[in-house]
Write a structure and sequence with these properties.
There is one protein chain. The relative contact order is 0.08. The chain is mostly beta strands and 441 residues long. It is 14% helix and 41% strand. The chain has a five-stranded mixed β-sheet with strand order 28-29-32-31-30. It has a four-stranded antiparallel β-sheet with strand order 1-2-3-4, with no helix packed on it. It contains six helices and 32 strands.
Length: 441
Amino acid sequence: MTAGFRGLFCTIKKMKRVIKGITILLIIAAVFQLSVIPGSSGVFKYKIFSGKNGVYLTNCSGKNAAVIELAPENRSYSFSFDNQAVDCCVLNKTAYFLVYNHSRDKCADIFTASSGKLKKSLTLQNIIISSSSAIAVDNNGNIYIKNSSAYIQVFNKSGRQINELREKSDALIQYPDFAAAYRSKHLYKLYGDKVKTFDTSAEYPLYGINGNYIADINGTVYNAGNMSKKADFNTEGFYKVAATDNYFVTAGESSLSVYNKAGTKINTLDFDTQIQAICSYKNSVCAVLRSGGNYLCEQINEANLKPKAEPAAEKGADGITPGNYRVRKGYIFVDVKTTIADFKESLAGRNYDIVFKNRRTGYIRTSNEVTISSNGVSKTYTFIVIGDVTGEGNVNSRDERAMFNHLLGKETLSGINRLAGDINRDNKISNCDLVLLSRLE
């Protein structure tokens, strides 16, 4: 595959724009080990489960099922059954499958899978399931099944029925640590043979953010213990709220909005692809991204959710300030195709003596130096041209190749070249920088 990527970068110019449209997805998947969800092209039909032990996507289709572990590892497993698999959920690293049992009346089979190993665990008696049935489990090993009549039957870990909710439920929901039923705008937390009813009216669908919070389709966030209202956001979609220790995060079509726990918006993160789903994992957010007709997952640490502080303008002892450009630790950051004349013009009228080392005209290049003097005091700066990692004064396929090889570990961008490649200014070179680089040409 690596040789294929090299070939793409060597493709002639007239194919370049086409390549950009089809290679970025491949680069992201290969270099950053983001999970490409098998068979996920088209409509997003997977269910997402997140908890302290990991993030999983599941899908049941006919006699086949898939479980994709997105965090902490990137692994996927496929399973086949003799009968149709109806639904699946995941709790504590174990997947639970609800499967028809056509050999006997009023029976259903429960299969479990852990680390890719599938086994038949139980046959549940006196139950009729349908294609709309669902399964959930809790930390005590109790199994909850929404049957063909939309009633919820409860079985203990030995397969003995211990309860039945004889009112039709709109949904059976698997949360990070427990199971719940939803009907008539109310949530019912399930405890084996007991049920706790929350009076707070919530809108379906609801989903677990993490072990502490629940959100509904309107973006109203509740405490999982007492369903007291905690925050209110307009999520406009399913699986569109996540939480870390310090922030709530909501997803738009291609951006994440970050709020503090008081509900104040503090940051926005933009993506080059559609965001299909987000969920919490430990103290980070996992985003399921759609790109090129397939789906990927990227983990975003809490540090990257914080607003980026702008460095203070750098001044010399005599008050020399190099225009309106971003300056940090002796570096001046400029956009690609900024000319020497442009830079001098920006400082016109300040009575500065401006001397470029070795060059007098043309585009400024990464590593070019300039000395600015005033009243006998001089200060020398080095230019960083954003995206110009090769120091040629522009952005082209050579910069793409250098950044790509850096991400593959074939070569290392360091010093001023690394600073030029950190386009989104998050103090690292990532897939986002590679995508942004393609826009600068």
